[in-house]
Amino acid sequence: MGFTMKNIGNLFFHGNRSQRKVALTFDDGPSRETRELLKLLRKENVRATFFVLGKHIGNNEKIIKTIIREKHEIGNHGYSHKSLIFKSRKFISEEIKKCDDLLLKKFDIRTNLFRHPYFHFGLNAWIVTYRLKKKVIFCDVKVFHKPHTLVCGTL
Description:
Layout: E1 5-8, E2 11-15, E3 23-29, H1 32-44, E4 49-52, H2 54-57, H3 61-69, E5 73-76, H4 89-107, E6 113-114, H5 123-131, E7 135-137, E8 141-146, E9 149-154
Parallel strand pairs: 2-7, 3-4, 4-5, 6-7
Antiparallel strand pairs: 1-2, 3-9, 8-9
């Protein structure tokens, strides 16, 4: 994120409200739609953060390489997109680490950015992300392009 974020611990809610900036983030990918989105971002010379699902990495390696090459940020969105509320610390840790391990193994990427699937989390999820030194990124504006495709803006 290219500007100061308002946070409580490792939970980040929005940027500096005195600046006229927006952080664009995209969740649940990569997918077929990601290619079209990347074309539009390239045309407009805009950078974004893509919160990727581990289960989508294997079939979309070329898309992720394009995201990296075009200098967008990569964040972790978990492996399976299961809600992390009412889950054990072990389950939550495995969800996050499995996605992290794939990003490291296939692309040599380490990310400290994380977004909870559906923005669902409880105390166990907060404890796990804190221990893993993850910055948990929320957003102000949520737009569902299609079912299970979320576009967020943080003002």
